[in-house]
Amino acid sequence: LVPGGAAASPAAVVGRRLASPAREGEVVTDARLAGPGLLAGARAGDVAVGLPLPAASSELVAPGDAVLVLAAPADPLLTDPSAATASVADVVAERAVVLRVPERGGEGALGPLGGDPAGGVVVLALGRDEARGVAAAVAAGSGVQLALLPDR
After folding, report:
1. SS3 call for 67
2. Are residues 29 and 95 in the same domain?
3. Residue range 118-137: average pLDDT?
4. 28 and 74, same domain (yes or no)
5. How many CA atoms lie within 13 A of 74 on its CB side?
6. Which has the closest alpha carbon to 135: 52, 65, 55?
7. Residue range 20-79, pLDDT digits in tens
């Protein structure tokens, strides 16, 4: 039994990079490879950024989708108990393009019942300034979420 997208020969994958670790003898498929093609067709100057997201957010999007990247500030009640209102999320990327999403389904934390509820990494194409904003939001512990945009 050979999975779809399996490399037909070793020559087909020589020089390519694996997107994640593999065990000896494991079948290499197209979904397991990363490489220079990830940004093919992206806007000039865009970079690829991995964004860890919970499953509920990562399952909302698919490769090719345009999204807003939103960062909610840390809970003001945790830093200032006298704060009476919550803050509004900031837009840190206006129109990022989804390049790759975590594999859905399969065996995750729920075993054969479904994927990992912890989510995974969504890879986005965005400008360098936006990439810095996204990285800063993640590093600050902001609640980063995606909002799906309509097709143009």
Report:
1. strand
2. no
3. 90
4. no
5. 11
6. 52
7. 777 888 898 887 887 667 787 788 899 999 999 888 888 889 888 999 999 987 665 555
Residues 116 and 140 in one domain: yes
Distance between CA atoms of residues 84 and 58, nearest Å: 31
Residue 101 belongs to domain spanning = 39-148
Predicted pLDDT at 39: 80
Q: Are residues 122 and 107 in the same domain?
A: yes
Domain co-membership, 29 together with 49? no
Please give the distance of CA 53 from its chain centroid, rounded to a whole number: 7
* 3-state SS track over 134-150: HHHHHHCCCEEEEEECC
Residues 23 and 96 in one domain: no
pLDDT tens per residue, range 95-104? 999 988 887 6
